[in-house]
Amino acid sequence: MRQLRAIKSDIEVNLTQKACDITRDAFNRVLKFIKPGVMEYEVEAEIIHEFIRQAATGHGYNPIIASGNNANILHYTDNNQECKDGELILLDFGAEYANYNADMTRTIPVNGKFTPRQKEVYNSVLYVLNESKKLMVAGAIWNTYHEQVGELMTEQLIKLKLISSTDVKNQNPSYPAYKKYFMHGTSHHLGIDVHDFAGRYTPFAEGNILTCEPGIYIPEEGFAVRLENDILITKDGNYDLMGHIPIIAEEIEEIMNA
């Protein structure tokens, strides 16, 4: 019975899409709300307001509202610090609707404008997200997929001068150099549970819904960037259930400054 959960029916896909749509509306609400001086918990309150307003069951999981260096704590849920001018804020949240979950991450500038370095890192993460989505096809093997994403991330980290080609050449195969700045997996199944049941050695299949969530964490620079969308695998490739949610850096700046 548990294995049946990995393949989603049309009804399940529609309910997950609705959860993603509500999550989009909460994010758009937050983009217009965040500014220097607001507290992380105030941002969380704006999100739950929109969820309840649209009849979502609530949060799919404890939301992460992590400004500044808090974003380098992977499962930060204190959400009690002030959002300061010049910082980025990492938002990891998703609505639950009719028991189906959305799971989204965005990273935005508190003051509505990325610094050149923040944007450089942001665009690297977005590049890895977009390229990783292309790898998420029926028949792909979990471990092979994650190794391929690791290669994409390695290329970007060298470009950002966070690691060197020498670091890669001398890396421990069981702990590649990129893991210093990207230490978690890229995807998990999504459904009735946010981390839905599926076998690690079962190939991706049509009807799977998976997250795609690369990130770069730089404690020494005081910020992190993670981006996450929810992807449905179909016979024609994959479909991004969050393709309508703002993610391009310039688009986010434009909405925040409108």
Model description:
The protein has 258 residues and is of the alpha+beta class. It has a single domain (2-256), classed as Alpha-Beta Complex (Creatine Amidinohydrolase), CATH 3.90.230. 34% of the residues lie in helices and 17% in strands. The protein has 6 helices and 11 strands. The strands form 4 sheets. It has a 3-stranded antiparallel sheet. A 3-stranded antiparallel sheet has the order 2-3-6. Strand 10 (229-234) and strand 11 (237-240) form a beta hairpin. Helix 1 packs across helix 2 and helix 3 (116-135) runs antiparallel to helix 4 (142-159). The model has no long low-confidence stretch (mean pLDDT 97).
Shape: globular
Summed up, the domain count is 1
Q: What structural category characterises the helix and strand content?
A: alpha+beta
Q: By CATH's scheme, which homologous superfamily applies?
A: Creatinase/methionine aminopeptidase superfamily
C-alpha Rg, in Å?
18 Å
By CATH, the topology is: Creatine Amidinohydrolase
| Helix-strand topology string | HHEEEEEEHHHEEEEEH
CATH first level: which class? Answer: Alpha Beta
The CATH architecture term is: Alpha-Beta Complex
Say what oligomer this is: single chain
